Amino acid sequence: MLTPSESTVNLDPRPVSKQDFRTLLDHAQGDDRAMVLPALNMAAYLQEVVRLRWDEIRDGCVVTRRNKTGKCIRVAVFWEETLEALASIKRRGEFVFDANTGSPLSISGAEKRFVKLRDAAGLAVTSSQLRDGAYTAAVRANVTEGIVKLLVGHRGSGLSDHYVARSPEMVKPACDAVYAAYFTGDAGEASNEQSSSYTCVPTLRLKPAVPASAV
User: Fold this and answer.
1) pTM of the model
2) What is the Cα–Cα distance from 52 to 198, expressed in whole angstroms?
3) What is the pLDDT confidence band of residue 38, given thresholds at 50, 70 and 90?
4) Edge-to-edge, what's the strand order for the sheet holding 73-77?
5) How far apart are CA 186 and CA 77, in angstroms?
6) Which of 161-165's residues contact partners 24+ apart within 8 Å by CB, and which partners?
7) What is the CATH number of the domain that holds 113?
8) Which of the 8 DSSP states describes residue 177?
9) For 70, how many CA atoms within 13 A lie in the half-sphere containing its CB?
10) CA 24, 177, 127, 73 torsion: positive or negative?
11) pLDDT digits (tens, 9 = 90+) for 1-10
12) Could you tell me if residue 121 is inside a domain?
């Protein structure tokens, strides 16, 4: 009998705990840190994170499309920590993440990096638990269903969804809620309280592209 893989079906979401995420982040450096933070920040699967292009990140925000449909725009406001991690890695070409060969990092390559990172941190978490954690944190903070769906890239039901022009600021409450759950409050499980003082509209500039001749 064939068993659906975790990436195929997830009937029992398992949000990563705050303690496990902070432990994971403490062990993450360079590209690993730049990959883990956006996954939680924008409630994305790793396969979505590795498809990020530099030109999709502007003014502290990201606007992209989910590869699954090609129609539903992904939007998010990146935290200062996320932008700092992205600004610290070398920019070689169109995509944010590259393999050692210089080509865009594959999904399997990203998962291998994540497994190596989580093993080094002594954890048993999966990459999809970051998305589950972000989704759950936003819901627990009473962010409206429509905003949560916009953050995770789900199309809303009904004809009105066709007329919604998505923008990063629309999902800022969800991004703030996820930040509050994993960077403020008590250690352990995600907090239900949002940070009233945090503003996730950083002004950091990302590194300019490295000329092709220099790669």
Assistant:
1) 0.78
2) 25
3) very high
4) 57-58, 61-65, 73-77
5) 24
6) none
7) 1.10.443.10
8) H
9) 0
10) negative
11) 444 444 444 5
12) yes
